[in-house]
Amino acid sequence: MKISLRKGIKYFLLINFIMLMSFFLPISALALEDQEKTKEEKAREKLLSDYQDYQERLQGIESKRQIDENGFRIIEDQIFPMETECFGNVYLVPAMEKQYHRLALFFTEEDGTVVYKTDQLETNNWNTGKMEQPARGISAISFQDLNRDGKVDIVLITSCRNQTGVYAGKSYKIGDVLFQGEEGFYRDYRISDKINRFGMSRSAESITAYVRDGYSAEFLYTATTKEELLKNGFVITEEQHYTRTFEKLGKLEVLPGTYTMANFSTFMIYLINEQGDIVWSFQPMGNFDNLYAFKGIACRDIDGDGMKDILVLARYSYDEANNELRTQSDYAIYYQRTGGFDTDTEVKNKVRCTDEDTVSGLVDKARAYWGWKTES
Which of 226, 230, 220, 292 is nearest to 263 (CA)? Predict the structure, then answer.
């Protein structure tokens, strides 16, 4: 078959173009990869630069009047006098860094001279690898000898709120303990971790009961049997204690109850199999401080998939920013799935709860959301 000269030139150019592109494409991919690496490197460099600037401002504070000048806001209503072994009588002056919401504690003499400062706090390490932290204020400060060495230690609870993510806008507390040493104050990160991981940051009394007196709510989250729960002080709410058959999990004991620590009751629900083993657990109270009144549980199919779900209604108490006690009714829904339960977020965003709501009424509202017709 004959090919014209013009066509031959076109074929030649096409082949060369394809070969050229096959040479440059891998280079382009590598260039994009290098560009992404450059972005990551720039982000790391900026983080390091921001942190260095923050530390320079913090370390440059030598008197109380310089706190505001260096970008920190003094929390005036949380300034307290205290007696220390290494510095004598001082004032504890907490201050929030204005840009990144990082908390620092300054210890000052009568004339305002800073004799010690620290920002090594749990609340400043909450958002790992970020400058921005969730602290918005101080919920509580308490002075106790927690390790019984004759020196006054500090219990600190910050009130926090996330700006982004699933829990954006929701308030919670982060607890911490600063032990007084020979040259200042120090933290035990293992203690701070357990305080927050196992819900013991609700009050200064709870933290004191854990650190000083040896009480702990850890077993509520780590126990594997009903026997272990009861042995550690879990109290069953008998009027809502019964057995139900769940389609994917079989016959289970529905075990609601509380563990009280320093007058604060943590509310939990467990599902126990016939051998006495815990197969699932729920913590419906979220970030509330205390169970005020338990209103009930319903085990019914809510989302229409033919499997029993769980709806829990209770009233909880919590402290406002001005230390005023408030109560609020709240509910939680858990959907049964093949491997356990999923926590509802969809219905709660649409169906609000009031103090007048009942368990059966909320079940009807939730079922209506999923398209069930309510019976007259």
Answer: 292
Positive or negative, the Cα torsion across 271, 274, 276, 277?
Answer: negative
Coil, strand or helix: which one is 268?
Answer: strand
DSSP state, 247? T
Residue for token digits 């769940």? 246
Looking at per-residue confidence, does 175 or 39 come out higher? Answer: 175
Which two three-digit tokens encode residue 64? 């109380």
Measured distance CA(333)–CA(363) in Å, rounded: 9
Find all residues with CB under 8 Å of 133, minimum gap 6, and list them: 100, 101, 102, 103, 123, 124, 126, 127
Burial of 315 (0-12, 13-18, 19+ CB in 10 A): middle
Measured at the CA of 258, the angle between CA 252 and CA 259, to 5 degrees, comes to 125
Report the predicted TM-score, pTM, of the whole model to 2 decimal places: 0.82
Give the containing element (helix H, strand E) for 307: none
Backbone angles phi, psi at 82, to 5 degrees: -155, 155
pLDDT in tens, 31-41: 666 666 788 88
Tell me which DSSP letter residue 303 carries: S
Give me the amino acid identity at 31. Answer: A
Are the CB atoms for 273 and 244 separated by under 8 Å? no
Query: What residues does 259 pair with on adjacent strands?
Result: 266
As given in the structure block, the two tokens for residue 351 are 């169906």
